[in-house]
Amino acid sequence: MQQISVTPTHCPYCALQCGMNLTPAPEGGVAVVERPDFPVNRGALCGKGRTAPAVLSARVRLTSPLVREDGVLVPAGWDEALDRIADGFARTRAEHGPDACGVFGGGGLTNEKAYALGKFARIALGTSQIDYNGRFCMSSAAAAGNRAFGLDRGLPFPLEDIPRTGCVILVGSNLAETMPPALRYLTELRENGGRLIVVDPRRTRTAEQADLHLAPRPGTDLALALGLLHLVVAEGRTDEEYVRERTTGWEEARAAAMAHWPEHVERITGVSVPELREAVRLFCEPEHAMVLTARGPEQQAKGTDTVGAWINLCLATGRAGRPLSGYGCLTGQGNGQGGREHGQKADQLPGYRSLTDPAARRHVAQVWGVDPDTLPGPGRSAYELLDALGTDIRSLLLMGSNPVVSAPRAAHVEERIRSLGFLAVCDVVLSETAALADVVLPVTQWAEETGTTTSLEGRVLLRRRAVTPPDGVRTDLYVLHGLAARLGVKTGFPTDPEEVFDELRRASAGGIADYSGITYRRLAEENGVFWPCPAGEPVTAGEPGTAVHPGTPRLFLDRFATEDGRARFVSVSHRAIAEEPDAAYPVLLTTGRVVAQYQSGAQTRRVDELNAAAPGPFVELHPRLAERLGAAEGDPVAVVSRRGRAVAPARITTAIRPDTVFMPFHWPGEGRANTLTNPALDPTSRMPEFKACAVRLEAVPK
């Protein structure tokens, strides 16, 4: 790698997108140093961020295209590899039609790559069958936000507002392990006199920081939120003026909440009535308060309604659309926000436009230079797309995802992938999914390319290229350019990321996620820009120059993004999880992450320091459950669901409920947690129910 001077950029992992500087390392390559000028992390980095350059090494990553010969992947040239992919998709289209071609993207792709991938699917392939792994991240929160506010942006306010509010209810998030640099905001909140309520079935490192920890049974967050709203009404804590002037639908939502009286909610959730009352007091007494959700309440087959119930709590108490208050979602993946705004999601066009909106289709088609009638309609959601592989979908292009490890019912998904007629994968490393491909393309990663991401705050950021990639590696934009040309689309797929971003700006103009006023220069000079940021209007009629829109750090202060400017209450009621425990499967499984690994672990498992900190999977269980099983600390334990079996060492702790076990999902092999999880889908968001399924435990002979 050829180094250049110190380069300000951003971490390749979670949606905090922490600022960092890259500098030439004495032993070669680059090293990470602090970048204190970036306001989100103020120089702080977790272990994953500090060790991110390790994956740039040729020792752990792909440096040549691979093609399958006689069942074995062997090195090949780029032209041969691209020709094979184009031929595979051309044959599929000719024999089975364009919708037999599938595309699966990722929440770690830059905005430019996500935009180009969506365009490639719809223009070069002509298929409707595109979705991405961000569907497994915060799609329930997105659906609930759109339903209530008319707009989905993870946080409608910057992180800097959190320490200045009076109370935060943090639902289903373990920030201390998933986003360690963000924990300082909660620490500062408490130092400033604010209160923290953590909702989690486990007493995590984050829950240890709380003034009040509520430990509901997995899958009962909806009942918990409704019980709190019931008490808000019963205790006269609603903001009647706010509800009257800024919302609609209150009567129906209130009636639904009143059916969830405290004792009933205690029986459902396991959270005591005194704890419920204390949570309401802590939340309602200060002038300002927030609710923040993450994957816990969202990765459920009722995730949209669950998030909607927490939004209802904010609306009833007048907490949304006011300074230092509101509802927000803690996006998980590095570009989980931007990744769904610009076209790689099954039902969306750039600018967060709806694929079924005729005006949106006309606008984007004009930018792309095509007839809007030629644009396909919405396709399958992520799990449904994966489930259709080998039957309706015969060929798949996969970028930036590893569903063999990360998808629910993972063993079944692996079978579907193996049944494909043709699979092409673009990745940095030979992931478990890439190892099954017919063609694997080695692509550049964060420090080897320039591009933009959008953080959990809705702040669009510029990642800068700092090093030259190895000779055999190309960008994803190069891949899409080469494939489109081979499929007969000679123009419209540039390889320069700034050129792609400028087209994205035009395509997003006037949309919900309007980036038209954002440029690479602004991103470099301003440490990012919050969307929506429309292009400026002329300063003076007839004179050159335009006013620069400052971006929008705080949404909804004047009105919500609905047609009438009012937020919408939604009437929701508790319902059981898709798979309740029974005599055969009497225990609940919930899944999540650990601090040293990230997502499917395809990259972090290749970093020695991170592997030393978290070398493998485990089963976390309560001492009473371990005693009934006859398991001691470290003993192998089998966790069995209706979909599969996983084995990992026991980790015995009182930090988890006695009726629940926890497994992290970063590892393949016999400890693959997602072999067990339930693909039951939320009817609105199409989110699978990762967070709760019925299992039984079995002792494994040593």
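(ticket continues) Second input and output from the same batch:
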Amino acid sequence: MTVAEETEVTLAVGQQKELPLAPDPAGRHPDREMHAILEIGVRGGRGGPGRTGAPVPGTGPALAEVLIVDTSRSMLHPAAKLHAAKDATVAAVRMLPDGTAFAVLSGRFDATLVHPGPGSPVLAVAGPAEREAAERAVRILDADGGTAIGTWLDLARRLLKDQPAPVKHVLLLTDGRNEHDHRAAMALDTALDACEGRFVCDAWGIGDDWDAELLLRITRRLHGRARAVRAESELTRAYEELVAGLLGTAVPELRIRLTPTPGTVIRQVKQVVPNEQELTPVPAGPGGRGAEYVTRAWAEEVRHFQVVLTADPTGRETGEDLQLAAVEIVVPDFGRPVRLPAPQPVLVRWTDNPLDASRQHPGVRRHELYQQAGAAVAHAYRAWLRGTDGRATADRELARALALAGELGDAQLLGALRLIETAPGTGRVRSGLKDVDWQHLILSSALTTPPEPPAPAPPARPRPSGPRTGGGAPPGSAPPGGAADPPGSAGPAFPVRPDGLVECPDCRWLGPADSVYCGGDCGRLLRGSPA
């Protein structure tokens, strides 16, 4: 295997390090939450043209796929929806490489195994004969009955339960709302509890009566993405692009391991780009202090995660960088070489300067703006549902969402909002809208993008020799709104013991010789010069 085939994972930690040490003049307890943005990227590992998605010899197929087709009665109104669903499902099956485990389900009040056939305890294995048999079974599907999505997902869970493929994926299509949940053998909430962490689910809407909040509810729990097509004819191409992306998976599973120093508490970890998803911790690390957060099905892409920590400054030094937690990336072995980044610290600098403590990292602010824009869209939609009585509120909330999208510089969101607007610049909801127009907007407002990278700075002029006379930041200080890079291994370091460990002079913590920060009680800098 060549170096070009190696998959590389990158990690960058962005934060504003200062937190307030003392109460404000009114005696109120200060906010001691540290928010950090983890930018994690995956690149390489596809192995060149023609090998996208190919399993490594001896490792087995990389993907197990379940395709769920809504066959409730509403799929016949118009019948173009069912025809499009069949065409798209067949196209997806045709793309599955030989050896891929797969199944096709039909969803109504209950779920039926269309292929490999009712009652089969295992998935089909893709090959020419199986793909043709699946196509025949899909082509004769008819529609009747109601919609109970929890039952559909539960059957997918049971089929995927014993599959060894590293990527387990469900592709769900529906044209309606989960109207018959009360009649289902398993309610949707119960099914989501059972399915979470078992597979990734992408959910698609088709037609004019699907529910964006329902799709988002499913995909946020099952770590997929919610999407929809405006025209039935778009579905086949959308499915083909999605399956191609799955087959190009570079890393089936990636774990974010956080190890806090004593006194630090992990409050929350969530994905914020390309969409928001809460992550549930699993224990990891020595002493039970660490936690891992599982993410799945990485293509060549970059995702952002927000970490929220709390800490107590009692007895800590001010004006000094201290480690609150170590961030490490862990990738289980899946048969290909992966180059992982070095662990990085989340830092704190306790300060009694209110101005320093009030600064916010741009990535944290950006996510807050997306949350506000999504809320404005939701408020505008609810007001629009009230008709004439809600018109003024809908206009006001639309104008607010447009302003937030402009501040974010998100062209995709701006474009989606302008489809709702009477005319550019009016900030008013146009007449003649259908409910489905709002559903598309709600999905668009749930997508997030990272900020545009800054333009390259001009080459720095040589610094004159002699004392600095002001007007610049001292070496190693943080740029405006952000944090300086963690100190490197240059500079004085404490001596390495004969056993290969370094001892912190303050709290006597023992750690690897190349530790930059103490992982014990004090979290102090061990190598390099303080920022």
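Agent notes: Residues 47-59, 460-492 have pLDDT under 50 and may be disordered. Residues 64 and 163 are 7 Å apart (CA to CA). Closing as not reproducible unless the customer responds.
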